[in-house]
Each structure stands twice: as C-alpha cells, then as structure tokens.
TrEMBL record:
Name the record gives this protein: histidine kinase
Histidine kinase domain sequence ranges: 229-450
One Pfam family, short name: PAS_8
PANTHER family hit by this protein: C4-DICARBOXYLATE TRANSPORT SENSOR PROTEIN DCTB, SENSOR HISTIDINE KINASE
Kinase recorded as keyword: yes
Keywords (A to Z) from UniProt: ATP-binding, Kinase, Membrane, Nucleotide-binding, Transferase, Transmembrane, Transmembrane helix, Two-component regulatory system
Residues covered by the PAS domain: 110-149
Transmembrane segments: 7-26, 32-54
Any one GO BP annotation for this protein: phosphorelay signal transduction system
Length: 450
C-alpha cells in the first residue's frame, strides 16, 4: 500500500513540472530565449525523473520475475529505502522470493528422491518421445539390455533388430514378450507401454521386466500339478488291478506250489473270470486316459478363416438348446456389433464354446432361474472377445488355480481334459482364456482373441 510520503513526492513533482511549464510559457511570450532553453531542459529532466520514479516498481517486479525464470534466487531488494511503500514492496518481494526458493528446493529434493527410487527399481523403466529420443532410462534397463548410455531407440538395433522393431511400432497399453539372447544367457522380457503427457509433450513410458525366473517357477508348479493329477488317476486305475490280481493268484497257488485243477471250485473259476473282466475294464480306462493325454498334445494348427460372430453364436445356441432342462434353465446369446467377425478355426473354437456352454449349463442345473449368456464383442482396448456367463454356484477359490490343469476335475464324470484343451486351442490362436467367479453370483469365462 502506497505511503503518505510517496503521494507527497508525487504531488511535489507534478507541481514543479507545472511551474516549469508556466515559466516556459512566459519565456516564449516575452522572448526570453535563455530562460526558454533553461526551462525546457529542466522540464525534460523533471518528466524523465517522474517516469523513472513511477517505473521503479515495475522494474523491480520485472527483475524479480526474470530472476525466478532463470532460477536465480540470490536477488535481494534493499529494505532500507526512505519511501515506506517501496520498503514494504521490497520486503514482500524478498519474502515471496524466499518462499519460491524453498518450494524449488523441496521439488529438487523430491525429484532426486524419485530419481533414486527409479534407479534402484528392480524393473527397467524408460521414457521416449515421438521422435524416439530417450529422455530417461534407469540402470536396471541398461543392465537388462547390456547397453549404455541409451539416448535414442535406434540404439536398440545394436542390441537386437527385432527389439528395435517392437519399440518403433509400440502402441499405448500394448504388452509384448521378447526373448533376448546374448553370448551369456537368454532373457525373457515382458514389455509394457503406457502413454503420458509432460509439458504438452506426448511420451511413451515403457516398463521392461525379466520374467525368466517367474516363468521357471510357473513351469515347475505346472509340472508338479500335472504329475500330482497323473499320479492320482493312474493309481486309481492300477490299485484295483493289483488287488484283484493278488486275489486270483491265491486261487491258483498255495505257498510255492500251483493248485491242482481238481481242487479248484466253480466259485473260484467264476471269480477269476469276473476279476479278469474288471482288469480288462480298468485297462481300457487307462488306455482312454492315455488317449486323452495324446489328444491334448496333438491339437492341430488352426485352419483360420473369417467367421461372423453372430452366425457362430447362433449355431452354439441351437446345440445348447438341446441340452436345456425344460423350464429350469435359460441359454441365450448376444453379438455386438452385429457385423463382428473373428479370424479363427471355426471347428476348434466351436468345440471350445460347446464345452464351456455345457459346463455352464451343468453348473446352473440345481439353481433356481439358472441362466447362461454367451456374449461376443469388442473391449475398450479393441480386442475381440467371447464371454460365457452363468449365475451358478461358481468355482471355489481353493480350486481356481487347478481348473486348467489337465485331468483335474471336480465332477464325478469326465476326464478333466476339456478346460486344458480349450486353453491349448486359444494359445494356438494367439489368444487367451481367463476366468473370474463370484460364488452364487456370477462365473465368467472369457476368450480373448489377438
């Protein structure tokens, strides 16, 4: 706020200018040329002094903002001036300068803190702009790629030509798996892209992670599950065979001697025939079991063609309608948009949908108002999908991780090969199958196509 002293000085300057202007007018009227020149010089000086006096505040503020722009916080304005308003202004500018300096220091500390976190992160992180210039790459990424320093994505050509092609055409929210090989080892990289905007500039944030260890653990875990199921199934078949064989042997051998035919009773012979029939039956079951395993390993490569989603679901609807229990369950389909097409092997995917639809109908048999809905569409990322939803009892959380393991089943009938075979078919199509389940509310199997 301007002080009284400031107003007095301003008024006095204006008064002196007015008096000088009057003197200049008299000098012109009476042709006092010397006084005329002197008054003109004085008037110009007074005008210049007034402009300087008024603009002193503007210059200080301009200097202040220039200093802030250049991150120069050493600028200080004198607080011992005689004009009280200027003194207060200088104090305010110095105080604001101090606050901005403190905020700037805090931001620098925070930036260093985040930079250190990124440097110590166990995953590779990189940002680059639309021209391919790399703005940031943490040490973990340089270690994974065995290349430093990284300034442009074209440098990735020297690491691996195919890796450069991934980064060159990387779209936002894409995920890629890439196997990087060098003289020492092979590294399985999971690469994910996320868009971001910084200071109006579009950037790509890419996260790179070595998942070799995780894949090894998952592979080992899958083998353990498979061996456990195989052992269970084989033991269930072999145990009765061993038991019956032992019983039959006792009929025909006493100690180390073979029982004479004359001593054999008719009951023993009949039991022997029954036992051999059971052994034959169990052997047949074991052969069927092995054949199921072979069918899983020998799924043919898909013979793909463009198939209209609406036509595909209508065929499944007809097939599923035959399995409906009158008045107790409901099966329906929906395709949106109606012109949606899938590039698939129609026979293989139809078999997958039939298997999932059959499972869903079986799960809602005991439910009141059981409903199964098969939906085809496109998600927010542009990926085509087919979902099979039901409102049955759902899948218990404790077996959720087991349902895609070959031969695992919670049913009294069935081989437990359906879901694992469906997963294999989707893998051959370059897609995936996921499941989510809320017990007694909703279970959804989702087929996502590349």
């Amino acid at each position: 706020m301007a002080s009284r002293n400031f107003y007095i000085q301003l008024i006095l300057r204006v008064v002196f200018m007015t008096l000088t202007a009057v003197a200049l007018a008299f000098s012109v009227a009476y042709k006092w040329y010397f006084a005329l020149g002197l008054c003109a010089i004085i008037l110009v000086g007074e005008v210049y002094s007034l402009i300087t006096f008024i603009n002193r505040t503007n210059r200080k503020i301009a200097y202040f903002f220039d200093a802030i722009k250049n991150e120069d916080f050493t600028l200080r304005f004198p607080e011992g001036v005689t004009i009280e308003s200027f003194k207060e202004l200088n104090r305010s500018l110095n105080r604001v300068n101090g606050l901005i300096q403190e905020v700037h220091m805090q931001l620098q500390i925070r930036e260093q803190y985040y930079q250190e976190i990124l440097k110590q992160a166990s995953i590779g992180i990189m940002t680059y702009n639309e021209k391919g210039h790399i703005l940031f790459a943490n040490p973990t990424l340089e270690q994974l790629l065995d290349y430093t320093p990284l300034n442009h994505i074209k440098q990735l050509k020297q690491v691996d030509e195919n890796l450069y092609e991934i980064f060159k055409d990387f779209n936002p929210f894409q995920r890629k798996l890439f196997q990087l090989s060098n003289e020492r080892e092979q590294t399985q990289l999971a690469i994910k892209s996320t868009p971001l905007t910084l200071d109006g500039q579009s950037l790509q944030l890419v996260v790179v992670q070595d998942i070799h260890k995780e894949l090894d653990e998952k592979e080992t875990e899958s083998w353990v599950r498979l061996i456990r199921v195989l052992t269970h199934e084989i033991m269930n078949t072999i145990t009765p065979i061993a038991s019956i064989s032992d019983s039959i042997i006792k009929y025909y051998r006493k100690g180390d001697k073979i029982t004479p035919m004359a001593e054999l009773e008719e009951v023993q012979i009949k039991n022997t025939l029954k036992g051999l029939e059971v052994i034959k039956e169990q052997g047949g079951d074991l052969m069927d079991f092995v054949q199921s395993y072979r069918s899983l390993l020998h799924v043919p490569e898909p013979n793909k063609s463009l198939v209209k989603g609406k036509d595909l679901l209508e065929k499944i609807d007809v097939l599923m309608s035959v399995r409906l229990v009158d008045g107790e369950s409901e099966f329906s389909t929906d395709c949106h948009p109606e012109g949606l097409e899938f590039y698939i092997d129609e026979k293989q995917i139809s078999q997958v949908l039939i298997n999932l639809g059959k499972n869903a109908l079986q799960s809602v048999e005991a439910s009141k108002n059981g409903k199964v809905l098969m939906v085809a569409g496109v998600d927010e990322k542009g990926s085509k999908f087919i979902e099979i939803r039901d409102n049955g009892p759902g899948i218990p959380p404790e077996v959720m991780d087991e349902i895609f393991v070959p031969f695992f089943t919670t049913k009294s009938e069935g081989t437990g090969i359906g879901l694992s075979l469906s997963k294999r078919v989707m893998q051959l199509h370059g897609g995936s199958i996921q499941v989510r389940s809320v017990p007694h509310t909703e279970t959804v199997f989702r087929l996502t196509f590349a």
